Amino acid sequence: MDVKFPIGELKVPEQVTLEHVQEWLKQIETYTTRLRETVDSLNEEQLSKTYRDGSWNVRQLVHHIADSQMNMFQRLKLALTDENPKVPNFVQDKWAVQPDTELPVESSIKMLEGINERIVALGNSVTEEELSRIFTHENNGEISVATKIAKLAWHEEHHLEHIKIALSK
Questions:
Q1: Using CA of residue 21, residue 27, residue 32, residue 35, what is the dihedral sign?
Q2: Number of alpha carbons in the 13 Å side-chain half-sphere of residue 30
């Protein structure tokens, strides 16, 4: 297993269907429950564990997941409401060391509950035609709604696995 990508890299089907979207939304809908089951009873030592040398610790990972979902939700919504909006990069390594990442992980889990609920509601209303709408990321170029929904699900699972690896050490 590649510890950097323990569930593999993101793979989006060439032709995304609403059935794919529904699968991804089911993952997103149950995510915070599964995350809570993993991190709720952790002590400070466990929250400080890392999944590999030089990686973020469990606390930083939980906060990063919330930061990232918040940014990706905004991009998704912009793609659905604007014509090919331009979106900035967010420098995740700088976000991961801001003072708010020292807060208890509960603050980010609460954020995720709300953000994921909104993602699922929005995703449930997406049409086949809307899956091809795009936004342009300043570093990564054009990204479709279909790809963004896939990444929203994949990204959470990716980091949940990182947390589990860290806790198993």
A1: negative
A2: 7
Helix (H) or strand (E) holding 9: none
84-125 tens-digit pLDDT: 999 999 999 999 999 999 999 999 999 999 999 999 999 999
Q: What's the full length of the chain, in residues?
A: 169
Q: Which helix (H) or strand (E) holds 140?
A: none
DSSP labels, 24-73? HHHHHHHHHHHHHHHHTT--HHHHT-BSSTT--BHHHHHHHHHHHHHHHH
Report d(CA 136, CA 68) in Å as an integer. Answer: 17
E strands along 90-163, which residues? 134-137, 141-144
Question: For residue range 62-85, what is the model confidence (pLDDT) as tens digits?
Answer: 999 999 999 999 999 999 999 999
- Record the pTM: 0.96
Question: Cβ(49)–Cβ(166) under 8 Å?
Answer: yes
